[in-house]
Design a protein that fits this description.
Blueprint lengths: L1 E7 L3 H12 L3 E4 L2 E5 L2 H14 L6 E7 L1 H4 L19
Antiparallel strand pairs: 1-3, 1-4, 2-3
Helix pairs in contact: 1-2
Length: about 90
C-alpha cells in the first residue's frame, strides 16, 4: 500500500523521534511529510510505534492511502528528484 504520512507534533524531541522512525519506512518529501510503500504488516508496526510517541491533544499524524491509479496522478513541481526504492531481483 502506498501511504502519504503527515504529522504535526509540538515537541521537538518527539518530532525528531517520529521523523527518524518514518525515515526507516519511506522517503522524506517535505518537512513533516513522508511517502511510504508498505505491506500491511509494516503499516501495522509503524502505526503502533508512532502511536506510542504521541501526546493526545497536542500531536496528530495523518495517513493518506493512495491507490495505484491515484499514485500516477501525483504532480510535483521543483525540488530534488524522487529516488526509486524499487528493488528488482533476477
Amino acid at each position: 500500500m502506498y501511504v502519504v504520512i503527515c504529522y504535526d507534533v509540538s515537541d521537538d524531541k518527539r518530532r525528531t523521534k517520529i521523523h527518524n522512525i518514518l525515515k526507516s519506512y519511506g522517503q522524506w518529501m517535505q518537512y513533516s511529510i513522508f511517502e511510504c510503500n508498505l505491506t500491511e504488516t509494516q503499516y501495522a508496526k509503524l502505526r503502533g510505534r508512532l502511536a506510542k510517541l504521541l501526546k493526545g491533544q497536542e500531536d496528530n499524524i495523518r495517513f493518506y492511502f493512495l491507490c495505484q491509479c491515484c499514485q500516477g496522478k501525483v504532480e510535483r513541481i521543483g525540488g530534488p528528484e524522487v529516488r526509486d526504492d524499487t528493488i528488482f531481483f533476477v
